[in-house]
Design a protein that fits this description.
Length: about 300
C-alpha cells in the first residue's frame, strides 16, 4: 500500500477543518513559505524567521499566511513554536464590510415596494443567510431539507460553507415572519399548495440567485442609490448588529455557521467602530436617497 506523503496528509487535515476556499489559500501560503525556507536555508525555525518571511509579502496578505503557518506547525506537533508565531494586527483591521444598522434596515423593509422584497430582506437578514442558502428554502418541514415553517417560524437551515455540522435549527423572529406570511398570502392562488419552494417567481418556479439579486439590486441600488455590494450585506448587517447588542463572539459565530470564531472577529471590530460614532459610520450612505432618514433613525436609536 502506498503511503501518502506528509504534504498530502496536511492537505487532508486542512480539508477536514476548513471550507474549500480556505484550504486552497492555506495550501498556497504554506507551500510558498516552505519554498522561502528552503531558498534561505532556514533549518531551526524561529518566530523571527517567520516574521522575516511575512515581511516579504504585501501587508494585506500577511495575516492569512501567518495563520497558514501556525496551522502547519500545529499539525506537525510544534505547538510551542506555533503559539509564538506573530499574527499581524492588520488581520483584524481589514476593510470593513458594508452593513446597515438594524433600525435602518427594519425601516427599509417597511418601505419596500413589493411583498417579495420585504420578505427577502426580512428573512435574509433575520437568519444571516447567504444568497444560496435563501434560494433553497421550502415552505414546510421535510426530512433533510432546508425549510421555514410558516406557522411556527421554525427554520431548518443548511449552511453551505460549514464543513462540520452544516445543519442548523433556528427560529425566525415574529418581525420577519410577519413579512414572510404577507408574501405567502400575496402569491397564494386557489390551487396553490404549501408543497412549494418558499420563494417563487411569477410563473411559480423556485427563485434562483439571479432573481433575488435582481429584486434586491433594482430597488436598493438603482432606485435608492444605496451601493450595497449585493445580498451579502444582509448577513453582514445581522452579525454586526448582534455584536452591537453585546452578544458573545461564540454565540455570533454559531449563529453565522462559522466553523471557528476567527471570521467572526471582523463583525466585532465593525460593531465597536459603530458604537464609537454611529453617524460617522453611515457616511457611506450619503450618496443615497435614504441618508437623511437613516440619520434621523440612528439619532432616535441613540436617544433610546
Amino acid at each position: 500500500m502506498v503511503q501518502p506523503d506528509k504534504g498530502d496528509l496536511f492537505r487532508r487535515y486542512l480539508t477536514a477543518q476548513y471550507r474549500p476556499a480556505t484550504v486552497v489559500t492555506y495550501t498556497y501560503a504554506y507551500t510558498n513559505f516552505l519554498h522561502w525556507k528552503q531558498e534561505n536555508r532556514v533549518e531551526n525555525l524561529t518566530p523571527a524567521d517567520v516574521m522575516n518571511y511575512l515581511e516579504t509579502l504585501p501587508e494585506s496578505a500577511r495575516a492569512v499566511h501567518a495563520y497558514a503557518i501556525k496551522a502547519y506547525l500545529e499539525f506537525y506537533g510544534k505547538h510551542d513554536l506555533a503559539s509564538k508565531v506573530p499574527v499581524p494586527r492588520a488581520s483584524y483591521s481589514m476593510k470593513l464590510p458594508t452593513w446597515i444598522p438594524e433600525p435602518v434596515l427594519m425601516w427599509l423593509v417597511r418601505e419596500a415596494p413589493r411583498p417579495v422584497i420585504k420578505a427577502i430582506l426580512a428573512v435574509g437578514y433575520d437568519l444571516a443567510l447567504r444568497l444560496n442558502e435563501l434560494v433553497i428554502l421550502n415552505r414546510v418541514p421535510r426530512p433533510d431539507t432546508p425549510y421555514i415553517d410558516l406557522e411556527t417560524g421554525e427554520a431548518n437551515i443548511y449552511r453551505e460553507k460549514t464543513k462540520r455540522y452544516p445543519w442548523q435549527q433556528m427560529q425566525l423572529s415574529e418581525w420577519a415572519l410577519k413579512y414572510l406570511r404577507a408574501y405567502r398570502d400575496f402569491v397564494r392562488s386557489d390551487d396553490a399548495s404549501n408543497e412549494k419552494p418558499l420563494f417563487v417567481t411569477l410563473t411559480g418556479r423556485r427563485v434562483n440567485a439571479s432573481d433575488v439579486e435582481y429584486h434586491f439590486k433594482n430597488w436598493l441600488e438603482k432606485d435608492l442609490g444605496l451601493d450595497t455590494g449585493g445580498f451579502k450585506i444582509l448577513r453582514h448587517s445581522k452579525l454586526t448588529w448582534m455584536a452591537v447588542e453585546g452578544k458573545e463572539l461564540v454565540e455570533i459565530a454559531k449563529y453565522a455557521g462559522h466553523s471557528t470564531p476567527n471570521p467572526t472577529l471582523i463583525y466585532i471590530h465593525a460593531a465597536s467602530q459603530f458604537r464609537k460614532n454611529p453617524l460617522a459610520y453611515i457616511d457611506w450612505m450619503k450618496s443615497s436617497t435614504i441618508y437623511d432618514d437613516a440619520k434621523e433613525i440612528i439619532l432616535k436609536w441613540q436617544a433610546g
